[in-house]
Design a protein that fits this description.
heterodimer, A: about 270 residues, alpha/beta, Rossmann fold, 6-stranded mixed β-sheet, globular, B: about 250 residues, mainly alpha, MetI-like fold
């Protein structure tokens, strides 16, 4: 088990002994078992695990949507004019009755930022994700990839210290996923937010993160961590040819394979 | 598309022509079933004298007032019931019990409490659409993807924010379904109420025509009711389209 190595820092994440039970048909089900880890300020950390291991549950706890049964979480909370922790959800991540711009403005609007200011900030962030021309378009008229970009712009517009992403590119095709990964990396390179990126893709985790946390099959706990010593800024073309890249993916798969097999057995 | 639009005009027109022809041929007795040409002439005359517009206006006024009085609280309460399990559990049995009562059956009671004036007519329209809009609104909120609520909460939405930025706009399509169904109910109920105890309105017009055996006027009343219903549906469709541009 990985101990939380850092004290609760203002712009990092520290999770200590988080356990989560859900009510089940045969008594409570344990979704998370004594999860502890820390993410340093400015670090890009990926969280990987077999499906159903509690990744999303953990993220919901970090986002403040769920109160853990036991354990503590230290993460920056909202203050005036700033949202300390912003979330990008998987799947349905935009509000269909708002235009792209109003979706990006949404967090700012809830914080009470005056309309002219939030409008300007929203347009800035739409430009950063290449969607300025689609500001007044509704999500139903955008592609899945564009909707995820709107969702990322909405999270960044609130200028958070921490960015939580829950498999944001899971529903995209391979080409679009590569493009959005590039976009995300260059945005992160500029802003250096603390990032926790939940994914089930080994390749995505290695490509993006400084460090990959591996979760076990349900009940989820942190099984191990793998450091990614690839240089930044990262170029996909180059990264793919570095021997380290293949070795890291093999190492991650090694860690994960038993857990995936276990998750499979539990399911059947 | 184009040919189906033509067919939609042709079929009622054809029916009217056959009707007229049957009167000419003597199959239908004009004293009992007046031909469309006579009904149309009566309609024109009644419009010129101002009698018809007066009755229509009174009925429309009752419907609009009753609609506002019924729909506005229904939407508010419906959203709250959709959002809050406790409120839903508390109110649902009452709603489920009152909803299936034919609202015209409550009318004598409404007259007893409110008298024969405008208040009773407006109230019966309000009551008749209230439950329909309420249930549709609640279903609209309950049918929303939970993900929308997660987004709102993750960005720090208060219960009021969730009401205004997620539940209400998200339920609007269902609310409009309720309003359109309610419009039909409102017409049925108002004409029925005017038949029973009233000195004006379309229902009164039809009832009086029956008493003086003016069959053509009865048909005029029916025709006007049909046109009103159609116009209300078109109007609501138009408003819905303007208000919900995201639904394309």
């Amino acid at each position: 088990m990985i101990e939380a190595t850092l004290p609760a820092l203002q712009t990092g994440i520290a999770v200590n002994g988080v356990t989560q039970y859900f009510p089940g048909p045969h008594g409570p089900l344990r979704a998370l078992a004594d999860v502890s880890f820390a993410v340093r300020p400015g670090e890009f950390c990926a969280l990987i695990g077999p499906s159903g291991c509690g990744k999303t549950t953990l993220l919901n706890i970090l986002a403040g949507l769920l109160e853990p049964t036991a354990g503590t979480v230290s993460i920056p909370r909202a203050e005036r004019g700033r949202l300390a922790t912003a979330v990008v959800f998987q799947g349905v991540s935009t509000l269909p009755w708002m235009t792209a711009r109003h979706n990006v403005e949404y967090g700012l609007r809830l914080m009470g930022v005056p309309a002219p200011i939030r409008r300007r900030r929203a347009l800035d962030h739409l430009r950063q994700v290449g969607l300025e021309a689609f500001a007044d378009v509704y999500p139903s008229q955008l592609s899945e990839g564009m909707r995820q970009r709107v969702s990322i712009a909405r999270a960044l517009a609130t200028d958070p210290d921490v960015l939580l992403l829950d498999e944001p590119f899971a529903n995209l095709d391979e080409q679009n996923r590569l493009l959005l990964q590039d976009d995300l990396l260059s945005l992160w390179q500029q802003t250096r937010k603390t990032v926790l990126f939940v994914t089930h893709s080994l390749d995505e985790a290695v490509r993006l993160a400084d460090r990959v946390l591996v979760m076990s099959a349900s009940p989820g706990r942190i099984k191990s961590e793998v450091l990614v010593p690839l240089e930044r800024p990262r170029d996909f073309e180059r990264v793919r040819q570095v021997p380290t890249y293949g070795r890291l993916i093999a190492q991650l798969w090694e860690e994960l394979r038993d857990e995936v097999m276990r998750a499979r057995q539990d399911a059947s | 598309m184009r040919s189906s639009r033509w067919l939609a005009i042709l079929s009622p027109l054809g029916l009217l022509l056959i009707w007229e022809a049957l009167n000419w041929a003597g199959v239908l007795d004009g004293r009992f079933v007046p031909p469309p040409s006579v009904i149309l002439r009566t309609l024109v005359i009644m419009t010129r004298t101002g009698e018809l517009p007066r009755h229509v206006l009174i009925s429309v006024q009752r419907i609009v007032l009753g609609f506002l009085l019924g729909a506005v609280p229904a939407v508010g309460l419906g959203v709250v019931m959709g959002l809050n399990r406790t409120v839903r559990a508390l109110l649902m049995p009452i709603v489920a019990a009152i909803y299936p009562i034919p609202k015209i059956a409550i009318y004598p009671l409404v007259i007893f409490y409110l008298g024969l004036g405008e208040a009773s007519k407006v109230s019966i329209v309000a009551v008749s659409i209230f439950f329909l809009v309420l249930l549709n609104t609640m279903a609209g909120v309950l049918g929303l993807d939970r993900a929308y609520f997660s987004i709102a909460k993750a960005f720090g939405a208060s219960p009021r924010d969730i009401f205004l930025t997620v539940a209400f706009p998200g339920a609007l399509p269902a609310i409009f379904t309720g309003l359109k169904l309610g419009m039909g109910f409102a017409l049925i109920v108002i004409v029925g109420a005017e038949l029973l105890g009233s000195e004006a309105g379309i229902g009164f017009l039809i009832w009086r025509a029956y008493q003086i055996f003016a069959i053509d006027v009865m048909f005029v009343g029916l025709l006007v009711t049909a046109v009103l219903g159609w116009a209300a549906t078109v109007g609501l469709d138009w408003v819905e389209h303007r208000l919900l541009p995201w639904r394309s």
